[in-house]
């Protein structure tokens, strides 16, 4: 196992962080060499396995990302935009693969990530499941086939602790629909309807967000036309599928040239 490429998980105390740790520990392609969390968290300095309620691993949780990255070949990062930007710069300096599942970036932050990716290998996706990425391909193709008589609405549902909306996956699907229509999502996006909004504008791509309970992730792309509707749907019932996709991305990216990639590249769907 010692000769497997090392990977660091950031945000290890979070639900996705802990899921990623378990998946890496079970992996035959990667080994866990670092566990990072934010300064001041009560896991800092503790054995990772004990902090997660399991057996001792000998790996201590740290807030020193630079030290944790020293033995790694890749970083898997599901944290927050500001933290991810810092990790991206550090990963680029060290020539490490950076797999990003973080969502909620501003346009300016995305521009900064793209600049960093010019000199590093970066895989970023709003969703790392095979099914969702197939859904983006289907969404683009259906949008190409249907004109603006068909309204496009993206409805997403997530657990009540999710902090950003629309979800990164919903935005991925919106981008795919916009690409199929040959328009910019920034120009066609319709969000947050409330009050007297007037009639829907032809060609707009609408977003609706549901937050409640422990919903892992549900996404519908609705094409609503005169007398008929086409609904493309993906339902995630196990968060582990996102972790498995992230590990697949990290293994794949180790052999790639510097640049930005997404899960369609990883899965050979581009």
From TrEMBL:
Enzyme Commission (EC) number: 1.17.1.8
Location relative to the cell: Cytoplasm
Gene3D superfamilies per the UniProt record, alphabetical: Dihydrodipicolinate Reductase, domain 2, NAD(P)-binding Rossmann-like Domain
Binding site for NAD(+): 11-16, 37, 101-103, 125-128
GO MF: 4-hydroxy-tetrahydrodipicolinate reductase; NAD binding; NADP binding; oxidoreductase activity, acting on CH or CH2 groups, NAD or NADP as acceptor
Name of this chain's protein: 4-hydroxy-tetrahydrodipicolinate reductase
Role: Catalyzes the conversion of 4-hydroxy-tetrahydrodipicolinate (HTPA) to tetrahydrodipicolinate.
Leader sequence residues: none
Pathway named in the protein's UniProt entry: Amino-acid biosynthesis; L-lysine biosynthesis via DAP pathway; (S)-tetrahydrodipicolinate from L-aspartate: step 4/4
Similarity comment: family membership: Belongs to the DapB family.
Residue numbers binding NADP(+): 38
Name of the gene encoding the protein in the UniProt record: dapB
GO terms classed as biological process: diaminopimelate biosynthetic process; lysine biosynthetic process via diaminopimelate
Dihydrodipicolinate reductase N-terminal domain sequence ranges: 7-128
Organism: Roseivivax halotolerans
Keyword terms, alphabetized: Amino-acid biosynthesis, Cytoplasm, Diaminopimelate biosynthesis, Lysine biosynthesis, NAD, NADP, Oxidoreductase
Residue positions binding (S)-2,3,4,5-tetrahydrodipicolinate: 159, 168-169
């Amino acid at each position: 196992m010692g000769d497997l490429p090392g990977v660091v998980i950031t945000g290890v105390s979070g639900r996705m962080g802990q899921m990623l740790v378990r998946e890496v520990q079970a992996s035959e392609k990667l080994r866990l060499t670092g566990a990072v969390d934010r300064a001041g968290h009560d896991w800092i300095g503790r054995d990772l396995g004990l902090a997660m309620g399991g057996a001792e691993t000998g790996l201590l949780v740290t807030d020193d990302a630079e030290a944790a990255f020293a033995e790694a070949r890749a970083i898997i990062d599901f944290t927050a935009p500001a933290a991810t930007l810092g990790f991206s710069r550090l990963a680029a300096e060290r020539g490490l693969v950076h797999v990003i599942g973080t969502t909620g970036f501003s346009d300016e932050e995305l521009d900064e990530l793209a600049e960093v990716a010019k000199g590093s290998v970066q895989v970023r996706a709003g969703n790392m499941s095979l099914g969702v990425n197939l859904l983006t391909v289907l969404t683009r193709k259906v949008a190409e086939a249907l004109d603006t008589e068909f309204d496009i609405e993206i409805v997403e549902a997530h657990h009540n602790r999710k902090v950003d909306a629309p979800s990164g996956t919903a935005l991925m699907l919106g981008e795919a629909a916009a690409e199929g229509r040959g328009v910019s999502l920034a120009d066609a996006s319709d969000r947050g309807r409330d009050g007297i909004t007037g009639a829907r504008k032809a060609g707009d791509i609408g977003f609706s967000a549901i937050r409640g309970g422990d919903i892992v992730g549900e996404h519908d792309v609705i094409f609503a036309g005169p007398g008929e509707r086409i609904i493309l749907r993906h339902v995630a019932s196990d968060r582990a599928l996102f972790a498995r996709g992230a590990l697949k991305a990290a293994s794949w990216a180790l052999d790639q040239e510097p640049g930005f990639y997404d899960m369609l590249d990883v899965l050979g769907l581009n």
